[in-house]
Every structure is written in structure tokens, then in C-alpha cells.
Amino acid sequence: AREHLMSFYVDGMHAHDVAAALDADGICVRAGNHCAELLHAKMGIPASVRVSVYGYNTPEEIDRLIKSLKRLHG
Fold this sequence. Notes:
There is one protein chain. The protein is an alpha+beta fold and 74 residues long. Helix content is 43%, strand content 16%. The protein contains three helices and three strands. Strands 1-3-2 form a three-stranded antiparallel beta sheet, covered by helices on one side. It is globular, with a radius of gyration of 13 Å. The mean pLDDT is 91.
């Protein structure tokens, strides 16, 4: 697949807090409205987190992202 961007939010956490927590685990993401203010307003969320993965990412890095996200959402 050519798609390599995914935006998401963690219920109950602001996107900037999610990004800071992931950064503490060595995972780089972006948080904000990503030029999609109207979509965020329609979804009722102030911001989202965007992760970009591609061929240079390893399966272990993806597993680390998932593990970190699971820990956040508890």
C-alpha cells in the first residue's frame, strides 16, 4: 500500500499530551489540526496525532508505537 500517514486521537487525552508521552518513548509524531480544522470541529476533537510510517521503519518500531499507545489508553 502507498498510504503511510495515520491520524488518530486517544479518548480522554489531548493530542499534545499523547505526542509528549510518545516522544518520551522515542517515538516521533506530530500533534495539531494538520490543516484540517473543520474536520476536527466536526469530529468534536481539538486536535489529533499524526504518525508517518514507511519502508524504512522496522516492524519493531511499529510494535513499540502500539505498545506505547496501549499503555496510554490503559
